[in-house]
Amino acid sequence: MDKSDKHMSQASKSMQWTREHDILLCREVLALEVYKHKKGTNEAGRLWDEIAKNLRGCQTVRFKSNLSQRAVRKRFNLIQGRFKENEKTELAASGISVPEQDELDVLLEDIAERERDAIAEASEKKGQEKATAEDIRNQALERMGQTKKRKSEDGQEPKERKSRRSSNEALQFMQEKAESDKAFREEELKIRKKEEETKAAQFQAMFTQQQSFLQAMTQQQAQQQQQNQHMQMLMAQQSQAMMSVLEKLLSKE
């Protein structure tokens, strides 16, 4: 291995995070909406893997070739923690001028706001699901209570028949509850499936946009290279023409 290969190998293993690295990382976090998924879940892990993969393939800023999702997640947690601490300090320091925000600050602030919205939305959704389940349960209990009331009002009904009817009503209640639970789970699965399809479509659109951007950049670089080559060729031709004229003038003398 020569010195240049050895240097590249060492560079791929060690990398110093800069503000440019952090900006690209936050762009990916914002694009893939990692904050919408609970930490430690399979979906969150998949998105962090995707972010690490995208950063490894970045052409504008070099990331190390073995960049892992753990390193990416750890770095984001670090800069996000610093940003939140700075926010607390700025809020506490009333009357002190706040430094102007750059792109990284804007990205972190946007992510923080979206994360708070996602948490609030998840909490609201959980509350609605709980309320729906409670409503179904109350309706079933209410029907059961009405049945019991009708039975108690009918005092001439034989005890044996009452016992049999009570068992049937309990069985009916359990069946209705099972059907209600099943319908609730099916509806929940439909909602989740629709959300996943929407996310997949958004991700595909973002990926297509990124690919188009990279393709346009590549074409622009190729065109610029062709223009440079053409300019060099023209300069060489002009130089040769001038040399030819100079030689003719010297030969006449």
Structural topology:
Layout: H1 3-13, H2 19-32, H3 42-56, H4 69-92, H5 103-153, H6 159-252
Helix pairs in contact: 2-3, 2-5, 3-4, 5-6
Biased composition (Basic and acidic residues): 151-160
Coiled coil: 177-206
Protein name: Myb-like domain-containing protein
Provide the descriptors you would attach to this structure in a database record.
253 residues; mainly alpha; 6 helices
Total E-strand runs? 0
| Structural class label | mainly alpha
Spans of 5+ residues with little confidence (pLDDT < 50)? 1-12
Question: H/E series, N to C?
Answer: HHHHHH
- Shape, please? elongated
% residues in beta strands: under 5%
Distance between the termini: 59 Å
Largest sheet: none
Radius of gyration: 34 Å
Q: How many individual helices?
A: 6
Oligomer: single chain
Nearest-integer average pLDDT: 79
**DSSP helix fraction:** over 70%
Notes on the structure:
This protein is mainly α and 253 residues long. 83% of the residues lie in helices and 0% in strands. It has 6 helices and no strands. The two termini are 59 Å apart.
